Amino acid sequence: MEAKKPVIVDTNILMSSLLKRKSAFLETLRSGEYQFHICELPIIELFKHKDKIIKYSELSEDEITKVYYFLLKKLTIYKEDLIEKSNWKKAYELCKEVDETDTPFIALTLELDGLLYSGDQILKKHLKAKGFVTIQASCHREHREHRDIKSLLKKTCLVEKDVPQAGKTILNALHEVVDTQNSSSV
Known about the structure:
It contains ten helices and five strands. It is α/β, with parallel strands linked by helices. It has one domain: 3-Layer(aba) Sandwich (Rossmann fold), CATH 3.40.50.1010. Strands 3-2-1-4-5 form a five-stranded parallel sheet, sandwiched between helices. The longest helix is centred in the C-terminal third of the chain and has 15 residues. About 24% of the residues have low confidence.
């Protein structure tokens, strides 16, 4: 049996799973059918926007916390420091015209030779035009019936976890990597 490529998930997919009561992504994640990866950035972005998530979510605050824990438990978190500088540079070049904050997701996709799972239609269209072909439009099965989030949460338990504090922003770090690459190639 052929191994499936790793799937790199961006923040908007994770955000959606915290906002909606029925989530095919959460169901697919629970099934173990795919190997999903995130970089460190979405953990910080979701934490930073927690008040908005709570305000607009169909879920209670307790349910959001449990789903967030479930995501952290099931997703493979890849340390951004381990991504090769060449992949950072390629990713930045691919993203800079649309949204350079998407660079970590593209860099990780390149690093793992994986598929990008994003709901950002503008980004996907731009990347395709640039020849970036490892985009997965929808990696989860379409479900005729979605399980209610409460039944999914029964399979998880909540424990207190510290959320790591962000050092300097990923964007500043990214600019440093690109500047270093540009100066070393001169």
